[in-house]
Amino acid sequence: MTETPQQYIARMLAFVGTREPVGVLRGTASAIAVAIAERPAAELRWTSSPERWSAAAIVAHLADAEIVASYRLRMILASPGVAIQAFDQNAWAAAFRYNDQDASASLAIFRTLRESWLKLLSGMDDSCLDRYGVHEERGRETVRHLLRLYAGHDLNHLQQIARILDEGDRAGRGPARSGD
Question: Is the overall model pTM greater than 0.90, yes or no?
Fold first, then answer.
């Protein structure tokens, strides 16, 4: 079942709840690093089925989503009211072979971009958070709203990474294996 843009927004914002989004955004790279630490590439590329993403694919997706977020935020800040183009994450995953990507390299890209745009925003006055773009599927989105949406996106994918690695461990693909 495909969710509507409104359902997606509600789901992402529910992950954040009452948490301060910038705090979530600041902690994501470290949380990913802890989750994938000392895991061989084969474990990070494991998935329970070909239709599901692996942990490595999710980290590659997060790196690409960070490229998109960095661009969108800069466009909104420089040109309030700008049109924001959607992208098909599954098409990107296939085109850029997410499951073949090195999770640590993807994390390095993610971390660099995230630190860059958080630093950019920290130097701006609060009124900049009310600037907006118009997403072609989701409508008007302020910088303030996008911070909450991206924080929810992070939390969603952190949970997915943990679940996938746990499934892999139980399937004998991770450090919980006996006889090593």
Answer: yes
